[in-house]
Specification:
The chain is α/β, with parallel strands linked by helices and 356 residues long. It has two domains: 215 residues, Isopropylmalate Dehydrogenase; 136 residues, Isopropylmalate Dehydrogenase (3-Layer(aba) Sandwich), CATH 3.40.718.10. Helices cover 41% and strands 17% of the residues. The protein has twelve helices and twelve strands. The strands form two sheets. Strands 2-1-3-12-11-4-5-10-8-9 form a ten-stranded mixed sheet, with helices on both faces. A hairpin with a 4-residue loop joins strand 6 and strand 7. Helix 1 runs parallel beside helix 12, helix 10 packs antiparallel against helix 11 and helix 11 crosses helix 12. The longest helix is centred in the N-terminal third of the chain and has 18 residues. It is globular, with a radius of gyration of 20 Å. The two termini are 23 Å apart. Bound molecules: nicotinamide-adenine-dinucleotide (NAD).
Amino acid sequence: MRIAVLPGDGIGPEVTAEALKVLRVMEKKYDLKIEIKQGEIGGSAMEKYGTPLPEETIDICQEAEAVFLGSVGHPKWDSLPPEKRPEIGGLLKLRKLLQLYANIRPVVLFEKLKEVSPLCDSILAKKIDILIVRELASGIYFGQPRAFTGHEALDTMRYKVEEVERIARLAFEIAGKRRKKVTSVDKANVLHSSMLWRKVVGQVAPGFPQVRLNHLYVDNAAMQLILNPSQFDVILTSNLFGDILSDESAALVGSLGLLPSASIGEKINLYEPVGGSAPDIAGKGIANPIAQILCLGLMFEYSFSRADLALVIFKAVEQALNDGFRTQDVVAPGMSCKTTAEVGNKVCEYVLNWTN
Ligand code: NAD
């Protein structure tokens, strides 16, 4: 398993270090052959090399079978020109280079974390297990023209038929292995790009007769996620709407620090937590490492076809949370907060002791 590890900025290096501890335990326990090459990305790379995505990093990623990323960014780099900013010149450029077209974001509420969800008991009585499939390579984050003149600013939300077909097919395939329902989210009552989206998704659907399809406008979807989240199985949506709805979903399950994601490319996939570099808590040893650790599970499942190992990681994480090994973002009243490293160490211990 050849893995490129890019810890990035802010809490990225702290949480990546915990995930790597877990990976090493998995390697030993399951006799895996793992080769790790570490690279720089984001603002820290910018300060060292004058670019947020150095050539060495691109090479390391292109030689790997999977890229394991922390996060990038900090407000102090926000005034740099776009190509030098961690998000645009670093992460978005890497996503484009690796042709990552889909971002998969599982949103699962751990039973014991119901106590930290902002939802009321009657809503939490039903299971929350959603998988968001977000289009990643197109839409308003990449559409041209885009401009900022000072008096006027412009972004372009553009989709091509083949881009919508590709992501829709993936969402239907994944739904076929789950509860067989796709909810496509758009704004087809207003936006032309959404009208195309809805039409193409409707054309892909008959190829997957076992999967039910329904459509929601994004404003309604945002509301339904709060009122009745258990109605969702797979949510299929565009780059912008997926970005927003997945952060909203994070709140449902307790914290952004719990949500992993997999970005699917034609050849190499990239794994990163849904949250950002969290500058407000970086360097304090209190960031939640669970999202980053769960990214390992997604990597085993989607890059190395080892869903069995993904399950081991999920169970170890669940057990650590159940036993009160929780960082400050997910503690219940009266519970003590654990550090990033304490949670990481506990997950390692449970992985080591796990028996099928
Ligand atoms: P953020 O996701 O970094 O933080 C939002 C809130 O969630 C903060 O209160 C933070 O403390 C909390 N949070 C996030 N991850 C956490 C974790 N693992 N444990 C505990 N709490 C956690 O979003 P932001 O504050 O809007 O952005 C900060 C920086 O991150 C910006 O520069 C932004 O551009 C960047 N960013 C990067 C990515 C990425 O690398 N993929 C994604 C989003 C934002």
